[in-house]
Design brief:
11 helices; three-stranded antiparallel sheet; globular; 322 residues; alpha/beta; Rossmann fold
Length: 322
């Protein structure tokens, strides 16, 4: 068995998250060998079209869905907004060849519970993440965090004694100002957007998420990103997480980045319009001895735009001794 990891030019029809036999090959994809015994020790790795998290953790505000795959040194992957663990599907499958990989949908995101009155702010997510690490029995895992997940991982480490062996920050929210124009507009009008007509919401959502990729998303991939935010519950949850995205949650930790004492890798798409490359330079400069890796031609969704570049950088970073 081999795992086929799509390259930057991979075809849209290949099913990049699937496990395929050696007789099946996409000419535009890179084949990465995976030991069969590492694929399913904790359950079946979901394919791209069947991304299902099988475990749940009860928080005071609802159930958080999570899962783990592979065997080896632990790595935890954090998604951002408005995404879910689905963003890591290909990276998780590839890393599971050599690592025990943990993924989770933050409260109010993906398959995790969504309801009125939830606290889904970076403050709440950081507390939940620290609880999850304890629940999983992970004392010093490697952590890889994208977008809003970067703020969550940094807060958990700096404020809640979550210890990491190393930290990779991928197009991460870390310094204000952050958030797109729509993000800021929702924060200023939190009661208006949940009441938008369904067709208006769906059109705006599709256009908004689509801008996260510089190369463009295949229809099926874009639909998978949109699915958690559809319907009455999903629409309310989408605007809830935006309304609670207060920049104070990074303002109150950013002066502490200089005290980080662990290996840090900053990965950034050179064509990110949500968080421009200057943010990556600012973050790397704020952290002692941090390395920066530029992902050429990638927008904010580097997992979609430059998967082989990202995976290569992460595998090298995770393999290095401190």
């Amino acid at each position: 068995m081999t795992y086929a990891l799509p390259s930057e030019t991979a075809c849209d029809t290949f099913m990049g998250g699937a496990i395929v036999g050696t007789a099946t090959r996409c000419p535009n994809c890179v084949r990465v060998a995976v030991r069969p015994e590492c694929l399913y020790p904790r359950g079946v790795m979901p394919s791209m079209n069947n991304w299902t998290l099988t475990q749940g953790y009860e928080t005071r505000d609802g159930i958080v869905r999570w899962d783990r795959f592979g065997a080896g040194p632990p790595v935890v992957l954090l998604h951002g907004t408005p995404f879910s663990s689905y963003v890591w599907r290909d990276v998780a499958a590839a890393l599971a060849a050599d690592h025990e990989v943990y993924v989770w949908d933050m409260l109010g995101y993906g398959a995790s519970d969504k309801h009125a009155g939830q606290d889904v702010s970076p403050r709440a997510q950081a507390l939940i993440f620290a609880e999850l690490l304890s629940h999983w029995g992970l004392q010093r895992p490697a952590v890889v965090a994208h977008d809003f997940g970067g703020a969550v991982a940094l807060r958990a480490h700096l404020l809640h004694e979550a210890n990491y062996e190393r930290l990779a920050l991928v197009d991460a929210v870390a310094h204000a100002p952050w958030g797109t124009g729509l993000f800021r507009l929702v924060r200023e009008n939190p009661d208006v957007f949940p009441q938008l007509p369904t067709e208006v919401h769906e059109g705006a959502l599709r256009a908004y998420v689509g801008t996260a990729s510089h190369r463009g998303l295949a229809d099926g991939t874009l639909s998978a990103y949109l699915a958690p935010w559809l319907g009455d519950e999903g629409q309310a949850a989408f605007y809830r997480q935006m309304a609670q995205g207060d920049e104070s949650y990074t303002n109150d930790i950013q002066d502490s980045y200089g005290g980080l004492d662990l290996p840090v890798l900053v990965c950034w798409g050179t064509c990110d319009t949500w968080l421009p490359p200057e943010k990556g330079e600012q973050l790397a400069a704020a952290i002692p001895d941090a390395r920066i890796c530029w992902l050429r031609g990638a927008g904010h969704l580097v997992q979609e735009d430059a998967p082989t570049q990202l995976l290569s950088a992460l595998k090298e970073f995770l393999a290095n001794e401190r």
